[in-house]
Amino acid sequence: MPNTIQLRNVTEADLPIFYEQQRDPEATQMAAFPARSRDAFMTHWTRIVADTSVQIKTILFNGEVAGNIVCFEQLGEREIGYWLGKDYWGRGIATRALEEFLTEIKTRPLYAHVAKHNIGSKRVLEKCGFTIAGEDRFFSEIFGRNIDEYILMLDSEESIGST
Questions:
Q1: What does the alpha-carbon distance between residue 87 and residue 52 come to, in Å, rounded to a whole number?
Q2: Nearest residue to 6 via CA among 76, 99, 75
């Protein structure tokens, strides 16, 4: 099963792996999202796994937990987010996982926020039909600087998997 991507429901055994993945300093800088402490991480995940409005899956690559992908509501809009462990970057895993996940998520439009410096994640979203709908800037107290981001949207007319 070379280079097999699968999505499955999140299990409790996935959480320690997700926790370690989100602690990687390069990943937190790339995502412009700070790592959480173990207690804060577990509290957050307990809440989102129990929230029936959140759709979340574990991303498996060749049977190994590579990361997670989620669809949630924020400020009245449905958003997509994903996180891959650094060992899984640059292999097309996020694109293939997002393509599969989008077949399960029927709501449109969908939105995603990505730090402008995170070119790889922006490209994943664009390969899956998302287009830039706007830009934003916010001050991150954790990072002590402004974070510039793109807001991308997948509209009902967009085709999944376009390049």
A1: 30
A2: 99
Interatomic CA distance for residues 94 and 73, integer angstroms: 21
Nearest-CA neighbor of 59 among 22, 28, 85? 85
pTM: 0.90
**DSSP codes, 142-162:** TTTEEEEEEEEEE-TTSPTT-
List of long-range contacts for 142-146, beta carbons under 8 Å, 24+ apart: 142/34, 143/32, 143/34
- Please spell the DSSP secondary structure of 63-84, one letter per residue: TEEEEEEEEEEETTEEEEEEEE
Nearest to 98 by CA among 55, 150, 37, 146: 55
* Mean pLDDT of the chain, nearest integer: 92
29's tokens: 């800088």
